[in-house]
Amino acid sequence: MGNIARTLLKIGGSILAFIAAFVLFSNVMNKGNADMSATMKPATFPLVYIDINNMDVNCMHGYVGDMQGNYLRDKITPLQEQRSIPIKIKSYGPTIKGISFEVRSMDMQRLVEDTEVTEYSQEDADGYVSAVLYLKDLIEPETEYMLIIKLISGTGQEIKYYTRIFDPGALYLTEKFDFIMDFHNKIFDKEQAKELVKYMETNAEGDNSSFGNVNIHSNFEQLTWGDLNPKIVTKENVSIKEIDSEYANVTIEYRVSAGSDLFDVREFYRVRRGSERIYLMDYERTMDQIFDTDHTVLVKDQLLFGISSEEPQMKESDDGSKLCFVKQNALYSYDNTEGYLARLFSFYDDENNDERTIYSDHGIKILSVEDDGEIRFLVYGYMNRGKHEGEVGSAVYKYIPVSNSIEEEIFIPYSKSYELLKQDIAYLSYVNKQEKLYMLSGQTIYEIDLTTKTCKKVVSGLLPNRFVVSEDDSLVAWQEGENLYNSDKIILDTLKNARSTEIKSEPGTTIIPLGFMDEDFIYGLARKVTLPMTVWAGQYFQCIQSASKINLEKY
After folding, report:
1. First-to-final CA distance of the chain
2. Cβ(332)–Cβ(344) under 8 Å?
3. Do residues 210 and 6 make contact, with C-beta atoms less than 8 angstroms apart?
4. C-alpha 476: how far from its chain's center?
5. Residue of 134, 66, 70 lying closest to 100 (CA atoms)
6. Helix/strand/coil percentages in the chain, nearest 5
7. Counts for the chain of helices (H) and strands (E), in that order
8. Which tens digits make up the pLDDT trace of 302-321?
9. How confident is the model at residue 2 (pLDDT cuts 50, 70, 90)?
10. Closest Cα to residue 135, out of 78, 173, 90?
11. 142, 177, 224, 286 from 271: Cα distances, Å
12. Is the whole-model pTM more than 0.85?
């Protein structure tokens, strides 16, 4: 199958190390592996597509409740002739009892139109219901609005689908789509792909060491998958991210097989229409192997993750006997003592494997791994199935090894986009031994007691450059005062034991949080000024202080 760069994870003792190696694809059955995914209800919501030139575009997943649509900016849909939007609904079996739609201003404050759709087709042989939405003459040209498509399911539940829309001028959409889909199809045929060389900008900026990341600077072999010979095994999900008369940003997402392995692939195209032809301005492609516990490869105590666009998230127990990692929105655990590997959580499995369950608008963060195998983790974003299907939020789960079960401890709903939630979770989400969960939401840090299910604010009004978080999320420091350049106090919170420390500066001196080095806090001291300056401009000291209040260094 050809040599492929693989990422290896060392699983000996308490040492975790990634090692790059070239190995052959192979299938090694580990008899100790098991799938212990939490039992949850199958996905039930339909999917809605926009029909553009007989192509299914901008796949929309359904939401329950009201979302803040002004934050759901992931896709944009241009109106077609007579202000129409042809849609196709993949029902997956249940009857659609009603279709209607709203048009709102992008701030969601003004209702422009609320219309019931009375004419739509019966489900065809492929399981699709078709309809055309005709908008009234109430919108301004080339102005963005939010379209909310509302379906009534067979059980009477209302499900909402969101997309930005606008009434465009000339977009030359057919030309742009033809170019993108032609490029996409040809990368799977090396002979036809020779025609694509003229669009590439192959140079030293291209990383040709792995198929995990390919871009416009990559070489021909990287672009055309080397010796992998992948085959597309799912529907290609085409999305318009941005478009105007000159430019278009489009993504294509799909799953491929290569031998017995499966991979998730995402392509990004930025194209520009010139006077005579379409130009490729940017191209990026990521490829991530689906980790399979039934065909895991172990080489000298090293676990092969396969082709990846980024390093998997991982955390181990204090004694090094248990390891937990996340790969392609699935959570796995490895018992280093027993040599036991298991999948603990994912929305997709062998019985639940369609566009709804493999949808990737969610993430998993490992919060804690105990020596006895108990694992606490956070699933955040869009919930593909289960009792929270169609909701966006953060669910805290605990895996209990004694009963081999997963229980939900708390669910925190969220009405903005997954991307915004992802930023907050990445910045701060931490649980301590006292079962207190700390999370950032917007400009506020909350403390959530997982035992009593109560919540309180730790601090609010946080602004960029005025607070910092340690790499393991266990320490956070923020500046108090009217602004960055006029503050005489920093609060240092040690979340492991909920202990706060005040650090004060001398009169006439501003104190500025800079960051952490392991568990040591770094801050700067600067003379107070009345005019804005850079963080570094007026500093005359940089100080390092441990979490135990010991001043370690001053520079």
Report:
1. 56
2. yes
3. no
4. 24
5. 134
6. 10, 50, 45
7. 4, 40
8. 677 889 999 999 999 999 99
9. very low
10. 78
11. 20, 10, 20, 18
12. yes
